[in-house]
Amino acid sequence: MFDIKWIRENPDAFDRGLARRGLEPLAGAVLAIDQERREEVQKLQDAQSKRNAASKEIGTAMAQKDNETARRLKEEVQKLKSTIQECEALERRLGEELHRMLSEIANIPLDEVPDGRDESANREIRKNGAVREFSFTPKQHFEIGEGLGLMDFDLATAIAGARFVVLKGALARLERGLAQFMLDLHTAHHGYEEAYVPYLVRDETLYGTGQLPKFADDLFVTKDGRWLIPTAEVSLTNFVRERIVEERDLPMRLTAYTPCFRLEAGAAGKDTRGMIRQHQFSKVELVSIAKPEESRAELDRMLHSAERVLQELGLPYRVVVLSTGDMGFAAQMTYDIEVWLPGQNAYREISSCSVCGDFQARRMNARYRPSGEGRAPRHVHTLNGSGLAVGRTLIAVLENYQEADGSVRVPPALKPYMAGVDLIRADG
Question: What's the CA gap between 117 and 307, in Å, rounded?
Fold first, then answer.
């Protein structure tokens, strides 16, 4: 959400930022509602002042037994009460309309973000790791998993419908081991504090991170009105909702391993085979709460923390910066990490790391108190990233470490989490 004062002072910059996202200019419409609301506030304050003055004069008139003046003043007060009620109702309606408009406008990109309509304008930053040359035609992950007898999509469909999977035996353990490996790396080496968080959240929680109201159709909602989280970012970022934290406690770095739930309403026909795009998947999330002047550097730090996972696993990847047309709603800037999948002969997204500025903080009323006497609280900056998507990391391990006979070598970094097993085979 935006600071309306900033839009008043920078309408052209606001519209330029929206134009970079391919959006129509909105400063004029926003400021028109804002001006009407401010005028109504002034009318309300004037009417309240007149009512208070008239009420005092009634007392004076009554004390002087000036009944005619008292009667006239009482009639005036009644009219002013009606005016006040009308002004309050209109000001409330205009305030709600302004709030709705501001809630549905995407964040303004940073200057360094490349302009473009879609992912075709994303810019590659770097590649890491050598792509393996196979002596055989590499299979896709679902062919490998089904060949091992440890990945069952038919059973999952019978239980829950399409876009679910059942993992068994060594693959179930590998998925769990990957998550533990990531958490250990982020907590022991990258300074993140692990948290266990709710998977069900309230409307205001999703509003705070920007999923509501605009993206309700992408989410699962329960009968009691709570929502299944699409990512642990939602729960972790709301740790500072309606709070003022001390400057000395920043940056806050948090991580959590959770299931994530997404309707994938717009994904019809996309990645229908396998585990790439599912309604339920697991992810290790990274969230940072930082001071404004440190948030950009914190984004690079978060990116390197996520990259380290792939480096330790020996998985080739590339880093791209997303264009203005491909960024998420709340982001000012986003790096994607794309892992190499030899079965698809393509790089596929495995992590997104974003800085949101004070966009989410304003929605959550999340602030910090700068050190120094008398300094007013300021909004924090928020960041989030995948560190990593566990299911997609499992896919990458299967495809990059597959052998000609259908077996899969276990990366050295994961052997401690696999009871020393170094080869996953169909015969166990």
Answer: 27
Domain with CATH 1.10.287.40 in the chain: 4-103
Distance CA 65, CA 71 (A): 11
Q: How many C-beta atoms lie closer than 10 Å to residue 315's C-beta?
A: 23
Is 173 one of the catalytic residues? no
- CATH architecture classification, 119-424: 2-Layer Sandwich (3.30)
Give the start-end residues of each E strand in 75-144: 123-128
Cβ atoms of 367 and 379 closer than 8 Å: yes
* Catalytic residue status for 301: no
Q: Please give the structure tokens belonging to residue 305.
A: 């923390």
Q: Is 4 in contact with 104 (CB distance < 8 Å)? A: no
Q: Exactly one of 295, 323, 351, 352 is catalytic; name it.
A: 352
pTM of the model: 0.92
Contacts for 126 with CB less than 8 Å, ≥ 6 apart: 318, 319
Q: Would you call 288 a catalytic residue per the annotation?
A: no
Confidence of residue 145 (pLDDT cuts 50, 70, 90): very high
Distances (CA, A) of 220 to 226, 263, 273: 9, 6, 22
Q: Who wins on pLDDT, 61 or 126?
A: 126
Write the DSSP symbol of residue 332.
S
Residue 124 among the catalytic residues: no
Residue ranges of the chain assigned to CATH 3.30.930.10: 119-424
Task: Examine the residue annotation and report whether 277 is marked as an active-site residue of this protein.
Answer: yes
Decide if 409 contacts 403 (C-beta within 8 A): yes
Q: What is the mean pLDDT of residues 56-77?
A: 70
Strand 252-261 and strand 193-194: pairing? parallel
Architecture of the CATH domain 4-103: Orthogonal Bundle (1.10)
